[in-house]
Specification:
- By secondary structure, the protein is mainly alpha-helical.
- The protein has a single domain, classed as Up-down Bundle (Methane Monooxygenase Hydroxylase, Chain G, domain 1).
- The protein has helices at residues 5-40, 44-63, 69-86.
- Helix 1 (5-40) packs parallel to helix 3.
- It contains three helices and no strands.
- It is elongated.
């Protein structure tokens, strides 16, 4: 543990941020897995519903700085393309 007061505070902040970031990232990954599972079953209706949820979680993670903005855009783009391809 740090000895300096400001270092102790920074350590407490780090722990809080780490917990929050992990929660956002876990929720995002779970939503993406649901989309991929629906794609695997070739169920377009559930894939679209899961995609809507996943896009919101991915965008929220990007806004909060958990993942980078372009990483979020790339992930959303790939999921949308995969769901659209399912319709053909």
């Amino acid at each position: 543990m740090a000895n300096i007061k400001s270092s102790q505070k920074k350590n407490r902040q780090r722990i809080k941020h780490q917990v929050r970031n992990t929660a956002h990232k876990t929720a995002m990954r779970t939503a993406v897995k649901r989309v991929r599972a629906a794609l695997g079953e070739k169920d377009k209706k559930s894939a679209e519903a899961a995609l809507k949820s996943a896009i919101g979680l991915i965008d929220r993670a990007a806004v909060r700085g958990v993942i980078k903005r372009r990483t979020a855009a790339r992930s959303v783009s790939r999921l949308v393309t995969a769901v659209r391809r399912l319709g053909d």
